[in-house]
Amino acid sequence: PAPHMAPPPPGIPPPPAPPAAPAGASDRSALLASIQAGKGLRKVQTNDRSTSSTAGRVLG
Q1: What's this model's pTM, rounded to 2 decimal places?
Q2: Could you tell me where the DSSP H helices lie in 1-60?
Q3: How far is 60 from 35, CA to CA, in rounded Å?
Q4: Residues contacting residue 55 through CB under 8 Å, at least 6 positions apart
Q5: Which of 29, 11, 12 is CA-nearest to residue 20?
Q6: Residue 18 has what pLDDT?
Q7: Would you state the pLDDT for residue 37?
Q8: Do the Cβ atoms of 7 and 15 come closer than 8 Å?
Q9: DSSP assignment letter at 13
């Protein structure tokens, strides 16, 4: 390309970024692995109080 190329006119998106470097990809896979490892970390017991005798009442 010529060294005096004009910039693209406004309204045209810039060219896509180059693919991520291997370091970035490994960081991403490490992050994904840590998220997946944490997915099964804790089990929460649901305390369903929708059938309690105070449902719908104004407490005061």
Answers
A1: 0.26
A2: 22-39
A3: 43
A4: 49
A5: 29
A6: 64
A7: 77
A8: no
A9: P
